[in-house]
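SAMPLE LOG
Freezer: B-3
Tube label: C17
Construct: single chain, 211 aa
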Amino acid sequence: MATQSSPLHIVLFPFLAHGHLLPLADVARLFSLHGVKCTILTTPGNVTYIETTIKQTNEYLKSKNEPGLVPISISLIPFPSAEVGLPDDIENVSVSSSPEIRHKFFQAFLLLEEPFEQKLKEINPDAFVSDTFYAWSADVSARTSIPRLVFNGMGLLARCGLDVVYEILESLPHDVDKFAVPGLPHRFEMHRSQHLFQLKNKQILSGCVWI
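STRUCTURE (predicted):
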């Protein structure tokens, strides 16, 4: 645990997509500016997306010349590409070009639980921040007794309406495309075609999106 001589140490584990890696790198920047030691955990193929932010942050921390500020570090875990039959260069959802590749990618990221837990035991942080997609990290927190915070970068309006939209889609007749989202102060209509991919991913993830 953190003491007067050792700063609070937090591990941040973003989902492997640009819209998750970059915001959590910014969160690490904010933490580090308040004297928190931050370690970002990711796979080798995703370092390139955050290394500029980390480098700029560490240069700024160094320029302040304050002893309580600790540079951000990056720790790596291997992405289980071979286990699901993925090419070695597919470690980010943005390069999952076909439905088959994307499906295998989501299968692979579900296999990160064990290496993530082993890495946590190795680093032994005071707490960790895991992306909302890593629902299994709640079990890791319980097994390791390391406190957990959840990062969800979704906007508040979208997050509040997400569950009700899925409920509508699951009960909507197949020949109906347009529907209104209830519970909003103004009429807001959407099309079934806007949500087909997300609905498919919800089924693939088997509840792992929800915490």
